[in-house]
Specification:
Elements: H1 2-10, E1 18-20, E2 23-30, E3 33-40, E4 44-46, H2 48-64, E5 70-79, H3 83-88, H4 90-106, E6 111-120, H5 121-125, E7 133-136, E8 141-143, H6 147-154, H7 158-167, H8 175-181, E9 186-187, H9 192-202, H10 209-215, H11 222-231
Parallel strand pairs: 3-5, 4-5, 5-6, 6-7, 6-8, 7-9
Antiparallel strand pairs: 1-2, 2-3
């Protein structure tokens, strides 16, 4: 399975990661320290059960292993679209997962994420996007909303969105476009173990995504608007 191949490259010193119902959890050795690993596999949809399993695993790390770094391995097709999950309040379960990640960060845990296969919509937002920094492999698939769905929501013809996507990363999927927007920190290739060790060493709880998006030319207005709001400047003037 792909996650096992990726784990072997990430953790040459060994790991105890196991899979149960598309949920990954365990520990691994990275550059002489123990790292907690949670994640998903098989493009699984995030329903109430797996959202709760991830949240429970993070809380266990916070409770039993103070300040232990956490790595989130991301492979999901997004939020599970079932009447049962909606009636049970899947949005609340996913929000709970995001809050647990934030609790870990505020408790001194470094949290980084790696999109090693697929990252779509809400399943990505409440996992990889909640980390201190999110990374991706070159062959990964990343998008929050497909162009067809975006066309239905915005009422903009899909062919027009496809044209916009050629020059504007906001409309386009893929790790390269998310890199330009600052949504991911970097795209990994080559020695994954070395890059993971560096990412853990450099992890910072400060959110730099809008600044990175501005510097990389993928999001030109988000950071100026934030600065204008914080300074009390007229946003339109900014």
């Amino acid at each position: 399975m792909k996650w096992k191949q990726i784990a072997a490259e990430l953790f040459p010193a060994g790991h105890t990661i196991s899979e149960q119902d598309n949920f990954l959890s365990g520990n691994a050795q990275v550059d002489g320290q123990t790292v907690a690993v949670i994640g998903t596999t098989n493009h699984t949809a995030i329903g109430v059960e797996i959202a709760l399993a991830q949240a429970r695993a993070i809380l266990r790390v916070v409770r039993e292993h103070p300040r232990r770094p956490i790595l989130i391995l991301v492979d999901t097709q997004g939020q599970r679209l079932r009447h049962r999950d909606e009636m049970l309040g899947i949005n609340s379960y996913m929000a709970h997962l995001g809050k647990c990640i934030e609790l870990a960060r505020r408790s001194g845990h470094k949290v980084i994420a790696l999109v090693y296969d697929q990252a779509l919509s809400g399943g990505f937002i409440t996992s990889g996007m909640m980390a201190d920094a999110c990374y991706a492999l070159p062959e990964s698939t990343i998008r929050v909303m497909g162009l067809a769905a975006m066309a239905r929501i915005t009422k903009v013809p899909e062919h027009r969105l496809a044209e916009l996507a050629k020059d504007n990363p906001v409309f386009a999927p893929g790790p390269d476009n998310y890199l330009r927007m600052g949504g991911i920190e970097a795209i990994w290739g080559g020695d994954l173990a070395a890059q993971l060790a560096t990412a853990l060493a450099d992890a910072n709880p400060a959110d730099r995504r809008t600044a990175l998006g501005l510097a990389r030319g993928g999001r030109k207005l988000a950071q100026p608007v934030i600065q204008a709001v914080l300074s009390g400047t007229d946003v339109h003037a900014a």
